[in-house]
Write a structure and sequence with these properties.
- The complex is a heterodimer of chains A (398) and B (140).
- Chain A is α+β, with helices and mostly antiparallel strands and 398 residues long.
- Chain A is 31% helix and 17% strand.
- Chain A is built from 13 helices and twelve strands.
- Chain A has helices spanning 31-46, 65-72, 91-101, 154-169, 173-187, 201-206, 234-237, 269-272, 278-288, 305-314, 323-328, 346-350, 356-367; strands at residues 10-17, 21-22, 55-58, 78-81, 107-114, 209-211, 214-215, 223-233, 245-253, 297-299, 379-384, 391-397.
- In chain A, the strands form two sheets. In chain A, strands 1, 2, 3, 4, 5, 8, 9, 10, 11 and 12 form a ten-stranded mixed sheet that branches.
- Chain B has 140 residues and is mainly β.
- Chain B has one domain.
- Helices cover 6% and strands 37% of the residues of chain B.
- Chain B contains one helix and seven strands, in the order H-E-E-E-E-E-E-E.
- In chain B, a hairpin with a 7-residue loop joins strand 4 and strand 5 (102-107).
- Chain B is globular and about 45 Å long.
- The two termini of chain B are 16 Å apart.
- The chains are: A alpha+beta (398), B mainly beta (140).
- Chains A and B meet through helix 4 and strand 6 of A and strand 3, strand 4 and strand 5 of B.
């Protein structure tokens, strides 16, 4: 019996993006208009016509596919959505691959569009209707155990995990700073990056505290913009404009008792101070037939700097608890480190489009066209989340 | 009391599964759901035991003394209504004798510099409005 797997059966053939904007500055464009512009750019990159797209594989609540189809005249054969939030970013490409391998669609777009003009993710769990809380969730029975304590934004909640990581493993704010500084250094060379000013260790420690132990520079940016990625079968990919970037594997999900994670805080001690990625890391390595030593560049979802450190542990780049010292040793620096991380400047310094910029960067690295090109890069890891289930990932290779 | 949100931005919603907790809370009693079939505690209350899927629950009273498992000091107001209450210490408190159940609440009337993981805390209650109280903690 042949093994059922996604391995190497599909490829990313096009990536596209709008400019990235500071929060609210993409107005008067509509959020869906940004999505369509990114998709058209991705089609152009691939050498495909827009009417060849026949599927959508989305995440983080997605958006109105019917409207999208109507605007662009797309006949739709597949729509799929990973539940949850930003944790599904990388996994949306796995969902696209699954649709193609199972014959449900031929040419599937994964897209994220974001406009934070009248809303901000930083107040996601604030009480709805209060000033400044326009993005917020309505009161919920689950939230009633958390929100009265003042925990109203994801950064405050991840701060609780970071604090525990420091306590358990001796991780320090200097370690978090190295994530912020190395990511900023990568953004400085990129025209697309919103934050290109050099950052020093003094800048980091002079920044205001938001939620201990996290300061301003441990938080990602709040942005507008859109990114689209097009996946087709490996067969078809050979005839298109760009060299195919193969989907080696993709997984989404998480351990049962990771569950709601930061909006529950009931995770077992063994992986409370973790990224929640351990089960999906094992899944994707098995599917791709690869391990951590095969990864040439890692694009790790960096909404908050400590969560990069925890992902480095959970993907096996260093032992559990050693992530802080791993980054302090210079391992994630572009140009000199053993594992360049977020060579595009990440969510922290380039733009936060809920993780899709990481997929785009992985594709550019494997095409050999990245701004901060990792010499000879053949295999890239992309992740989505830490978040409530699902978290997700993607291994790509050229 | 220093270190809690103003009542107008706290809202409590319950389901049939969480209502016993909030009813006891209004009487300043902490009760936790324990699976009648396998004796595992779980918190917050959910409709099924995550170990054995049973829906049978015994509500067990707990003194609420515990240790700080982790915490953050909220120093930035994500919405303006929070500003006057800052800094807020939001803590995850582990309760002994409950197979690791944790509850979340503010640590009140304390300098944030005096708070650390592992410290013992005792339970108190913040009366948000008539019939609604939420758990808070004080350093023991």
């Amino acid at each position: 019996m042949s093994e059922l797997t996604l391995r190497d059966k599909t490829a990313i053939v096009g990536v596209g993006a709008t400019p990235y904007y500071k929060r609210g500055e993409s107005v008067p464009q509509l959020p869906m208009e940004l999505a369509a512009k990114a998709l058209l750019a991705a089609c152009d990159d691939a050498g495909l016509g827009i009417h060849e797209v026949d599927g959508f594989a989305l995440y983080s609540m997605g958006f109105d596919t019917s409207l999208f189809a109507q605007w662009l005249g797309i006949d739709v054969r597949f729509t799929g959505l990973l539940s949850g939030g930003g944790g599904g970013a990388a996994g949306s490409v796995g969902l696209a691959a699954g649709a193609i391998v199972s014959g449900q669609a031929d040419c599937v777009a994964s897209i994220m569009t974001l406009q934070q003009a009248a809303s901000r993710f930083g107040a996601s769990y604030a009480p709805r209707g209060k000033p400044g809380a326009t993005y917020s969730a309505p009161p919920s029975p689950e939230g009633s155990f958390i929100q009265p304590s003042g925990l109203m934004g994801p950064g405050q909640m991840f701060a609780v995990l970071a604090q525990r990581h420091m306590y358990q493993y001796g991780t320090t704010r200097e370690h978090f700073a190295e994530v912020a500084l190395s990511t900023r250094a990568n953004a400085m060379t990129r025209e697309t990056a919103l934050m290109r000013k050099p950052m020093t260790i003094d800048d980091y420690f002079d920044a205001r505290m938001i939620a201990d132990p996290l300061c301003l520079f441990d938080f990602c940016l709040e942005c507008d913009g859109a990114v689209a990625v097009i996946t087709v079968s490996a067969e078809r990919a050979k005839d298109l404009r760009q060299a195919p970037i193969y989907v080696g594997g993709s997984a989404n999900g998480g351990a049962g008792r990771w569950g709601q994670a930061i909006t529950w805080f009931g995770m077992p001690d063994e992986y409370f101070a973790s990224s929640g990625h351990r089960t999906v890391a094992a899944d994707v390595y098995r599917m791709a037939g690869l391990g951590p030593s095969d990864i040439d560049v890692a694009l790790l979802y960096d909404h908050f700097s400590p969560m990069v450190i925890m992902q480095l542990e959970d993907y096996g780049f260093c032992p559990i608890g050693e992530g802080g010292r791993f980054v302090a040793d210079g391992n994630i620096r572009y140009g000199t480190g053993s594992l360049p991380v977020n060579t595009h400047g990440g969510n922290l310094s380039e733009a936060y489009i809920i993780g899709m910029t990481h997929v785009k960067e992985a594709v550019e690295q494997l095409r050999g066209t990245a701004v901060n090109q990792v010499e000879g890069a053949e295999v890239a890891l992309v992740t989505g989340g830490p978040a409530s289930i699902p978290v997700s990932n993607l291994i790509l290779h050229n | 009391m220093q270190g809690v949100l103003p009542p107008e931005i706290i809202s409590i919603m319950s389901t049939v599964w969480t209502e016993p907790f909030w009813r006891a809370a209004s009487e300043h009693r902490l009760v936790l759901p324990r699976c009648r079939a396998c004796s595992e505690f779980r918190f917050p209350p959910t409709p099924f035991c995550p170990s054995c899927s049973s829906q049978e629950i015994d509500w067990v009273e707990h003194a609420g003394s515990g240790t700080i498992y982790s915490y953050t000091v909220i120093r930035h107001a994500v919405i303006p209504d929070v500003a006057a209450a800052l800094p807020l210490i939001a803590a995850v408190v582990e309760l002994p004798g409950t197979n690791g159940c944790r509850i979340i609440g503010n640590i009140v009337d304390v300098d944030p510099a005096d708070v650390a993981i592992g410290q013992a805390v005792t339970l108190d209650w913040y009366d948000v409005r008539a019939g609604e109280s939420v758990p808070i903690f004080r350093l023991a």
